[in-house]
Amino acid sequence: MKKLFPFFTILILLTATLPSKACYTIAAGKKTTVDGSVLFGHNEDDGGQRLFNFWRVPRINHEPGEVVHLKNGGTTPQVPVTWAYRWIESVNQVFSDYYINEWGVAVASNACPAVKDKLDLTDGGIGFMLRRIIAQRAKTAREGVEIAGKLLDHFGYAAYGRTLSIADPNETWLLAMIGGKHWVAERVPDDKVVLQANIFIIREVNFNDHQNFITSKDNVRDYAVRRGLYDPKSGKPFDFAYTFNRGGSRKFLDRGYDTRQWRGQQLLSGKTTTVAEGRRHGLPFAVTPNRKLTISDLTAVLRDHYEGTPYDVTRDKKGNPNNAGERTICTKTTQHSTVAQLRSELPREIGNVLWLSFGRPDVNTYVPFYLGASDIPSSYHFVPEKITWENSFKYHFNPLPGTFAYQPDRAYWIFNDLENLMGLNYYGTIGEIRRTWGQQEKDAFGYQPALESAAYDLFKTNKPLLIRFLTDYSNSRAQKALRTTVKLTRNIKGEVYQ
To answer: What is the pTM of this model?
Structure first.
């Protein structure tokens, strides 16, 4: 026990309750995947009143002198051109939106509560607009980190702790922000996979390795020394995560690890970190998979309830595993789930695909949306006034009356109907649901090579027809998912009511 004590005492500091905005991210390097893609998975977990929209925002040319207005009052100069992007909007929320732009740069975030200090902010700092600006301006993930870093160094981050994950067809970076003007970013190795829950996971920082680390002007180690959080004379390496983490739980203290990060590492590497190892060393930043990964490998993690582990919440086959006392990867507050398939060897219109489950993924299906498509089905978004992305910008923080009212013809509510109804008899209905979606996803994966071969021929000969082709295919898959959901809901309603 004596050997465990130094690391174990650090864990005692990590026992605060996690917020309801508690998400989960997977970043798989391009050498870990079957097709050489970067795979970037994310569960968006948010409680409370919610409405999610899925928009396509076009490329926009801006006038000289335009500025971007930040939520807290600051402004920053606008660039001449902002890139087109897909936007999964969480209406009236600051930290819950997901973006992927025309170059395949995707941005998601995870709350990571940090030890508090007075935030060093200029003009109220930056928060909500940070991810959008990355999507609007970055052609690569590294450029996204650099753009964000300049904004953070100037304005400061207006919250206590968050990690942005920024991916592109070549690599993924994790940008960990303590709050204020202190942050560090680490590159995910090409031959590794990272599992990010709601806790900082960047460990030792090599301040001389500029290929794999980027840091704030006032670097985080010097900041930790000034705050008395790290003593360079101790002889111990500077560990970013265990210096600045404030989040965690009693389970974290008992086990020595975040259980969701532990489970993801177990599923993809085939190795199980023991409690003794966790309490002694914690978990590594990244692990090596025990096989080449597919999209299905990531969706299996994103749907997981710790099946077959000591923490399995499905063993008694009673109730709903998403409502269990153990916080699972897929949980009752999971609002949507994504896997971005990002491939550099194909034209970006074809090589970048967002597989979207527009609802909790254990109950719903992943639909492929090609970034070359020119629009998104109208059923995937709603504004009480004219239904446009411009109005969603306008009313994001000032929702119109009726915004959150039930709309039976809108995708968000159609998928939620199925979730809510089947939850009344989860184990009696989940089998039919999974068989149905399993077949549709198998069909989509199986059809992908032929579809993309045809798309590539069109790319070389008829670009407008390529865009129409990808739009029709993506939207037909999306509409099929909605029709199937309505049918499943009708079938299950009969079973539940009986």
So the answer is: 0.95
